[in-house]
């Protein structure tokens, strides 16, 4: 450290501090500033040299704000011996650094500043390359820097160099600033998980402040020389008494007249505001701000942006929340300043008309769900029993209490509930079908069997979740006699009617009209369609036959196969079968053979071979037919004496089928035998419907006019196992087993479909097929 | 529109249903089968509870939202279907 700063020669191009001139842009190349010693020089900066010369390569540089390129300027400090003692920079800039721009600070006006200030700030940073700005920035931030020093900085920064310095070493504040920003961004992009090694190194000692002592200790080595100098000085002063140069004098400065000024302003009103930001509140704001940003790029209209942001606010939002929205969005969007300037208006939402509410989609949906929930409350035990779940009663689970009973429990039927509503009362249930994909959906067709008192038919789709009102109601022009759901497109429902029309409905839509109607077809049926069935032909004869086709049988003696052509919107009939009336051989030989077609009443396709099917006629004949032969039957089974109402193959034994007819009997057949294996008769009533149980091979259900019977061949082949009489005055007309559960549905002539659960039915499983075959075998054996 | 009315009527006639209330977002009843003071009381109290329930659900997962609220008490069950513009309330006495 040097004790005194004897003289500093500074080459400045612009204002020289003591000259206090205006900002002269001309540059004097050799403006050397000689500084006298003064107390304020105590704040000297750099080391070791007594005097420093501060050379700034002067050139014709102008202090301009706009100049981007600063010429290279170096500051060299030379002591009186010409030694280069320019302080080395603490910060070494990148040689490829961007040319510095003049920062705003440099553009500031010059004003008188003291050299001392200048030294205090500049010398730490001046180096070969002029970094006037580099460290002054840090100093500016940290300490109080006078404007004068700033101006000096800027003046220095424009120095033109001496030839040796590099051109691109100049760095200004803004330059450093930019550099720092770049570095920052880089870090953000990199992986934050990287292990970064930090090396701590001791840098060179910088001397920032040196205040040499004025007094010297008596014991020090210099004491003698100092004393001698002091004495010499007093001698000198004594010799020069009277000389103005060596006299101490005092000065007085002018004090400006002071004046007090008062300013009054409006009181700043404060208001407390608080808000709670929930997790979802922040999420909503973020989502809506994200939407706002997307639209910003497209729509430059301020009003719409503000409107959009406001639309996302609920009515409970306060002003503060809108503020939070906007402030969060400033991070997101670039034109945030635009948004902040928007006037904040609490959105006035439109009050929806009460009628509009009632008609809205959501309201209807809510009503729908609510109704189901209410019904679930009411029907919960029944539905639970249906689904074979333990029932809740007063929040206590009831286990199956059948174990408490003594002795083997008798199989019984328990009535769970019935599907009926005011629309269906008085109508005759003619057919029922489960949906193939949704096992909770049931389609019921209502129509009279007899020719007289025909009224328009009705098809209702019921859901298990709502036994009191059907999900879909379709009114048809004539009584419905047959129903089937398609398997391939599960929402297609085929309906056969009393006047011979076949229509298909789409139950998914809310339309009341059929999708396709066969009334336009040329070859449509002319008599009631007694059964329709969707059949999937895997082995197709031609390309056309693949896929699902609709087969129908009608009283005009034809079995027709229908295709749905989507583009033509017409049913196309491709094939038909005719029933030939079998003339009794003996009695009517004399009469001419009148080949008439016998009305067909039912049919059933073989469960595995979709080419073979059985058809039953009004005369009591069962014909086995094949799809490949149109004219001939393969076999004929004759046993019944009355019209056959139902034929059904056993789902377990592929050779066995059942038939029921109005001659009070149910017959069990085997495919290869032309006489029935077993016959069942319980009452003297026509049997309207029979169906194999989908779960047990030896069980089937039958319904006749007065009662419903469940037969278990494993238990008894003479009597039905369970008998359930119908309510008086009501005839039971159709029967349907539920696929997943132990329930049976029975339709009656009063429009009710009752659901019964089979209780204590332990028919066993698995060996059922064997049991059935054993029964058949034993029966045959006994007949021999 | 008629379907909505029909459904509302059907709901009211189900077994055990004590009352049905439809209020708009401000608490003004649109349709109600109970007297006005009871309606206003139910609407006000349930509105607050629904807000709290919705806030709870969304706090756990902001992408979730409340669809239905059922309160079972000793005497009845109150079922609330909340929405932005309205609230549907049904009070039922369950069969057991």
Automatic annotation (TrEMBL), chain A:
Chief location: cytoplasm
- Specify one Pfam family: WD40
Q: What's in the keyword line of the UniProt record?
A: Cell projection, Cilium, Cytoplasm, Cytoskeleton, Flagellum, Repeat, WD repeat
InterPro entries recorded: Dynein_IC (IPR050687), WD40/YVTN_repeat-like_dom_sf (IPR015943), WD40_repeat_dom_sf (IPR036322), WD40_rpt (IPR001680)
Compartments in which it is found: Cytoplasm, Cytoskeleton, Flagellum axoneme; Dynein axonemal particle
Instruction: Name the Gene3D superfamilies for this protein.
Output: YVTN repeat-like/Quinoprotein amine dehydrogenase
WD repeat ranges, renumbered to this chain: 637-669
Kindly indicate whether the keyword Repeat belongs to this entry.
yes
Gene Ontology annotations of biological process type: cilium movement
Instruction: Please give the PROSITE patterns that the UniProt record associates with this protein.
Output: WD_REPEATS_2
GO CC terms: axonemal dynein complex; dynein axonemal particle
| Record-level Gene Ontology MF annotations | dynein heavy chain binding; dynein light chain binding
Q: Where are the transmembrane segments?
A: none
Name it.
Answer: Dynein axonemal intermediate chain 4
From TrEMBL, chain B:
Q: Where in the cell is it found?
A: Cytoplasm, Cytoskeleton
Recall the GO molecular function terms of this protein's record.
dynein intermediate chain binding
This protein's name: Dynein light chain roadblock
Which family does the similarity line name?
A: Belongs to the GAMAD family.
* Protein task: Acts as one of several non-catalytic accessory components of the cytoplasmic dynein 1 complex that are thought to be involved in linking dynein to cargos and to adapter proteins that regulate dynein function. Cytoplasmic dynein 1 acts as a motor for the intracellular retrograde motility of vesicles and organelles along microtubules.
Biological process annotations from GO: microtubule-based movement
Kindly give the Pfam families that the UniProt entry links to this protein: Robl_LC7 (PF03259)
Cellular component terms, GO, for this chain's entry?
Answer: cytoplasm; cytoplasmic dynein complex; microtubule
Q: Which organism is it from?
A: Esox lucius
């Amino acid at each position: 450290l040097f004790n005194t700063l004897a003289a500093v020669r500074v080459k400045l191009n612009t204002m020289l501090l003591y000259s206090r001139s205006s900002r002269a842009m001309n540059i004097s190349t050799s403006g050397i500033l000689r500084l006298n010693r003064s107390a304020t020089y105590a704040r000297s900066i750099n080391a070791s040299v007594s005097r420093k010369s501060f050379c700034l390569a002067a050139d014709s540089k102008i202090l301009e704000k706009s100049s981007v390129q600063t010429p290279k300027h170096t500051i060299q400090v030379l002591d009186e011996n010409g030694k280069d003692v320019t302080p080395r920079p603490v910060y070494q800039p990148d040689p490829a650094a961007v040319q510095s721009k003049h920062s705003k600070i440099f553009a500031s006006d010059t004003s008188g500043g003291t050299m001392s200030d200048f030294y205090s700030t500049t010398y730490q940073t001046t180096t070969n390359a002029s970094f006037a700005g580099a460290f002054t920035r840090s100093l500016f931030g940290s300490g109080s820097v006078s404007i004068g020093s700033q101006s000096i900085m800027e003046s220095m920064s424009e120095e033109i160099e001496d030839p040796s310095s590099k051109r691109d070493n100049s760095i200004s504040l803004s330059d450093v600033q930019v550099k720092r920003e770049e570095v920052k961004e880089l870090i953000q992009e990199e992986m934050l998980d990287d292990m970064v090694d930090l090396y701590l190194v001791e840098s060179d000692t910088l001397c920032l402040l040196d205040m040499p002592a004025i007094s010297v200790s008596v014991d020090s080595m210099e004491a003698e020389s100092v004393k001698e100098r002091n004495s010499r000085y007093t001698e000198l002063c004594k010799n020069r008494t009277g000389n103005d140069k060596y006299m101490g004098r005092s000065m007085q400065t002018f004090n400006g007249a002071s004046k007090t000024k008062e300013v009054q302003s409006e009181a700043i009103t404060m208001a407390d505001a608080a808000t709670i930001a929930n997790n979802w509140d922040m999420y909503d704001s973020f989502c809506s701000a994200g939407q706002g940003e997307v639209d910003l790029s497209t729509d430059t209209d301020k009003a719409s942006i503000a409107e959009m942001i406001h639309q996302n606010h609920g009515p409970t939002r306060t002003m503060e929340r809108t503020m939070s929205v906007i402030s969060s969005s400033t991070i997101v969007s670039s034109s945030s300043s635009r948004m902040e300037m928007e006037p904040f208006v609490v959105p006035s939402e439109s009050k929806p008309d009460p009628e509009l509410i009632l008609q809205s989609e959501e309201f209807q949906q809510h009503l729908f769900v609510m109704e189901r929930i209410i019904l679930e409350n009411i029907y919960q035990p029944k539905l639970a029993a249906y689904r074979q779940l333990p029932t809740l009663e007063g929040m206590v689970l009831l286990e199956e209490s059948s174990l408490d009973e003594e002795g083997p429990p008798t199989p019984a039927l328990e009535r769970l509930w019935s599907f009926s509503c005011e629309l269906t009362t008085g109508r005759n249930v003619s057919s029922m079908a489960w949906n193939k994909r949704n096992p909770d959906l049931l389609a019921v067709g209502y129509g009279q069997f007899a020719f007289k008192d025909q009224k328009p038919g009705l098809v209702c789709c019921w859901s298990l979740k709502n036994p009191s009102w059907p999900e879909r109601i379709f009114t048809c022009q004539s009584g419905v006699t047959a129903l089937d759901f398609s398997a391939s497109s599960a929402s297609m429902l085929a309906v056969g009617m009393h006047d011979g029309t076949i229509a298909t409905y789409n139950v998914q839509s809310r339309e009341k009209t059929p999708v396709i109607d066969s009334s336009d077809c040329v070859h449509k049926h002319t008599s009631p369609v007694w059964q329709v069935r969707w059949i999937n032909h895997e082995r197709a004869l031609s390309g056309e036959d693949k896929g699902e086709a609709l087969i129908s049988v009608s009283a005009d003696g034809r079995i027709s196969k229908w295709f749905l052509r989507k583009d033509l919107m017409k049913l196309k009939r491709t094939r038909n079968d005719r029933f030939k009336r079998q003339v009794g051989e003996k009695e009517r030989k004399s009469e001419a053979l009148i080949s008439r077609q016998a009305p067909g009443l039912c049919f059933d396709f073989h469960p595995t071979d979709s080419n073979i099917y059985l058809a039953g006629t009004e005369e009591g004949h069962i014909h086995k037919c094949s799809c490949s032969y149109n004219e001939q039957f393969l076999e004929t089974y004759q046993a019944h004496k009355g019209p056959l109402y139902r034929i059904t193959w056993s789902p377990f034994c592929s050779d066995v089928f059942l038939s029921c007819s109005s001659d009070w009997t149910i017959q069990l057949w085997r495919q290869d035998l032309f006489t029935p294996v077993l016959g069942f008769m319980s009452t003297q009533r026509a049997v309207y419907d029979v169906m194999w149980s989908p779960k047990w091979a030896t069980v089937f259900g039958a319904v006749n006019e007065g009662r419903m019977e469940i037969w278990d061949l494993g238990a008894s082949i003479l009597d039905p196992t369970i008998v359930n009489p119908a309510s008086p005055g009501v005839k039971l007309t159709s029967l349907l087993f539920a696929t997943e559960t132990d329930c049976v549905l029975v339709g009656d002539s009063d429009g009710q479909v009752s659901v019964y659960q089979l209780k204590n039915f332990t028919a066993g499983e698995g060996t059922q097929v064997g049991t059935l075959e054993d029964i058949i075998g034993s029966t045959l054996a006994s007949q021999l | 529109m008629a379907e909505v009315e029909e459904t509302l009527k059907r709901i009211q006639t189900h077994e055990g249903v004590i009352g049905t209330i439809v209020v708009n977002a401000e608490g003004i009843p649109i349709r109600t089968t109970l007297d006005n003071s009871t309606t206003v009381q139910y609407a006000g109290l349930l509105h607050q509870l629904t807000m709290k329930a919705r806030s709870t659900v969304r706090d756990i997962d902001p992408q979730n939202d409340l669809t239905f609220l059922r309160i079972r008490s000793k005497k009845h069950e109150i079922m609330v279907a909340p929405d932005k513009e309205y609230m549907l309330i049904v009070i039922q006495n369950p069969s057991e």
